[in-house]
Amino acid sequence: KLSQRLQYILEQIPPDSVLADIGSDHALLPVAAVQSGRVIKGIAGEVNAGPLRAARKQVADAGLSGKIDVRHGNGLQVLNAGEADVITIAGMGGALIATILDEGQDKLSGVRQLVLQPNVGEDMLRRWLLHSGWVITGEHILEEDGKIYEVLTALPEAESSLSQEELYAPVQLEGGLALASDLLIRMGPHLVKTPNEVFFKKWRGEIAKLQSVLKQVERSELESAREKKEELRRQIEQLEEVL
Ligand code: SAM
């Protein structure tokens, strides 16, 4: 059975897709996606030998070697342009996901949807999407086994009914606060508008971390600590306003 995290990612893939799952590890996602009938052909990309072997075995054991191609290589290099219409990249840092997409720009033509699950550094990934012509059309945050995950779905700007301007337009919250784009990029433009319990938990946790850093800095006599303190207080205040 798939984890809730991978199951949610699977459900974002449109029916009849050709899926490329990059950093596929055991190829759990492409195998389940083909078994569900949602994906007609899958490509599992892996850069490391161990996970690559695990992916090959998983695909063979499922009897899906004719439908899922397991390929060895870095990022999108395993793809031919126009081959896949959906790309999933999950379980890595947002900066690494952004680098993989950026280095593989030439392979993105013809891709109609990205489903991305950064473990950390979501802001870096959102910034890459914003500057590279991909509109985030959906965001979800979930908790599983004590870990919090975010899943972002993005479409090419030309195919999205939502524009980047609309996505990152200031949001009026109940208290009247207009959220600046920087904060939206950090917290997630959709998540901010439709927050769930996990969202609140994540950001209360982030505030607690900032407060503990602030306490340490407050003990310092150094002149440079003053600016740092102000910056931390500003950040805490901003986040508290949203929650
Ligand atoms: N995507 C699976 C998931 O979400 O459950 C596996 C996540 S696993 C933590 C990350 C995988 O990405 C590892 O198997 C690693 O070898 C692979 N990986 C890391 N960098 C990569 C790259 N540049 N290209 C392809 N695979 C990569």
From TrEMBL:
Signal peptide: none annotated. InterPro entries: SAM-dependent_MTases_sf, TrmK. It holds the Pfam family TrmK. Residues 200-243 form a coiled coil. It comes from the Bacteria. Keywords: Coiled coil. This is tRNA (Adenine(22)-N(1))-methyltransferase TrmK. It comes from Paenibacillus zeirhizosphaerae. The lineage of its organism: Bacteria, Bacillati, Bacillota, Bacilli, Bacillales.
